[in-house]
Amino acid sequence: MTEPLLFRGEAGTVTLTAAALTRLVAHAVSEVDGARLRRPKRGVEVRHDGGRAAVELELSGRFGASLHEVARAVQERVAEALAQTTGLEVERVDVEIAEVA
After folding, report:
1. What is the CATH number of domain 5-100?
2. Across the strands, what pairs with 97?
3. Is 89 helix (H, G, I), strand (E, B) or coil?
4. Rounded to the nearest 5 degrees, what angle is found at the Cα of 23, between the Cα atoms of 20 and 28?
5. How far apart are CA 58 and CA 60, in angstroms?
6. Domain range annotation of the chain
7. What is residue 25's three-state secondary structure?
8. pLDDT digits (tens, 9 = 90+) for 50-89
9. pLDDT at 12 over 90
10. Is 26 within 8 Å of 37 (Cβ atoms)?
């Protein structure tokens, strides 16, 4: 289960909720042609600790697309979006293609 991400500083705390992290991943996936999150609310898990993150997600791939290339593009886009937005070092993005539509 995705936990909120907390940033603590002198001015206070900033919290990125689990829903916000999930939406960030969903948006990144939507930018990859041929990919769609299969179950956006349950098919995404972002684990983070000590400035590092790992992501697991379920995809629906478009019939006729090179699913391997789609999955690689999703891995790259999700890692880039998460790192740029949160400052976390993304160690891995595990993609399961659970459906072809």
Report:
1. 3.30.70.1350
2. 59
3. strand
4. 130
5. 7
6. 5-100
7. helix
8. 999 999 999 999 999 999 999 999 999 999 999 999 999 9
9. yes
10. yes
Spatial contact of 25 and 78, defined as CB atoms under 8 Å apart: yes
**What DSSP element (H or E) covers 92?**
strand 89-100
Closest-CA residue to 89 (of 77, 79, 97, 75):
79
Q: Which helix (H) or strand (E) holds 27?
A: helix 18-30
Q: What one-character-per-residue DSSP string does 43-81 give?
A: SEEEEEETTEEEEEEEEEEPTTS-HHHHHHHHHHHHHHH
Using DSSP's 3-state secondary structure scheme, residue 29 falls into helix
Read off the pLDDT of each residue in 35-47 and give the average, rounded to a whole number.
Answer: 92
Helix (H, G, I), strand (E, B) or coil at 90: strand
- Residues 17, 4 contacting (CB under 8 angstroms): yes
